[in-house]
Design brief:
The chain folds into two domains: 150 residues, no CATH class; 34 residues, no CATH class. Helix content is 28%, strand content 13%. The protein has nine helices and six strands, in the order H-E-E-H-E-H-E-H-H-H-E-E-H-H-H. It has a four-stranded mixed sheet. The N and C termini lie far apart (42 Å).
Length: 219
């Protein structure tokens, strides 16, 4: 069993499942991690709410870290499974999350509470998934029902450092200029490649791939 880091016991990783109930005056919500460098108008993200199908309630972009091994228990019993493989059913990353709270409330009123603890437990047991946090729930939810989770373009959660050590490079492939850089994974790469600059990057929020003498591709 994959050992989950202690931080994933914190409430902050699960509080979003209560937002539709508690924030009754808010219909649509964009949740952003703090380690982001925004290169575009966030209105672009909001416009993706209008592309949701009638059943989609959440939007996220793909995970760039190769985590397919977390689905090995399910795959051992279902050899044809695509759960966690590179492509439409690879892991998701919750650095950027769009939530349609109004639609979630409407679905719950009809008896379909997709973000309930009971549904999370059911999916975890069904897929025997060894994940640790909120993004793993959305990942298996999308595999169970692709019409619940909208897949954002990878340029809105651009995590080149996260895929640096991947054996399967297709997992972190993203064609397009980044609109939001997500600095997750920077520490592992930066401490090796740019230890001095890494110490000060909390001020600049620059991807380590921008640390070169031309800087042209960063702006």
């Amino acid at each position: 069993m994959y050992p989950c880091p202690v931080k994933y016991k914190l409430d902050i990783f699960y509080i979003q499942f209560l937002l539709a109930k508690e924030l009754t005056q808010i219909n649509k919500l964009i949740i952003l991690d703090i380690d982001l460098r925004i290169r575009t108008d966030l209105k672009e993200l909001y416009e993706y709410f209008h592309q949701f199908s009638s059943g989609e309630v959440v939007a996220m972009a793909k995970e760039w870290v190769f985590l397919q091994f977390l689905a090995e228990s399910y795959e051992s019993m279902n050899p044809q499974s695509q759960l966690g493989h590179a492509g439409p059913f690879q892991n998701l990353n919750s650095g950027i999350v769009l939530m349609d709270l109004e639609k979630l409330r409407e679905q719950k009123a009809r008896g379909e509470d997709v973000l309930s603890a009971e549904n999370a437990k059911r999916l975890a047991q069904k897929y025997k998934y060894a994940g640790c946090s909120d993004q793993e729930f959305y990942f298996v939810l999308r595999y169970e029902d692709p019409h619940k989770v909208y897949l954002l373009p990878c340029v809105y959660n651009y995590m080149e450092s996260a895929g640096y050590f991947n054996s399967d490079k297709s997992y972190g492939m993203c064609r397009g200029k980044p609109k939001i850089n997500h600095l997750t994974g920077e520490k592992a790469v930066s401490e090796q490649l740019f230890p001095t600059i890494y110490k000060y990057n909390n001020l600049f929020k620059l991807s380590n791939w921008c640390w070169n003498k031309t800087w042209a591709h960063c702006y």
